[in-house]
Amino acid sequence: MDPKPIIGVKHVVLKVRDIEKAKEFYCGVLGMKVGKYDPERGMFLRFGDYHHDIAVFKVGPDADAPKQNQVGLAHVALIVDSLQTVKAWYERCKELGVDIDHSTDHMITSSLYIKDPEGNTIEIYCDNDYNWRDEGMGFMAKPFDLEKVPVTA
Fold first, then answer.
1. For residues 144 and 147, what is the distance between their CA atoms, to the nearest angstrom?
2. Which of 13, 63, 102, 107 pairs as cysteine with 55 (C-beta 3.0–4.6 A)?
3. What is the pLDDT of residues 64-110, one digit of tens each?
4. How far apart are the first and last CA of the chain?
């Protein structure tokens, strides 16, 4: 008997060396709320009322940082409602001194890529009006300058 189809992805778990820096970033920068916190083990974080969207587990201080060319997680993608919101997150991250990696136009999305204090990549993106069902979807990536996105009221 085949199981019912998987509904989707609802949380991700990241490993960090410094749980306090992670808490400052995920709560202070991204605005997450702590659901459960154990300074020796980790924490469960949420954006809304769900039990957790991101969990952070503590590893030893000598653990390797994420590397560009290694097997494992490439990034965590967080969706927002519009390009204006992506721009607002870009401005917020600049203001707070967050490591901004790059921004990209993927046709299907407009994306800002930032780094958490451990070097994990976080994508903040919005969907674009692009008909991927008809146009197709592939590895489309064009440079995208968020500085040039006009701010609207």
1. 9
2. 13
3. 988 888 888 889 999 999 999 999 999 999 999 999 999 999 888 99
4. 54
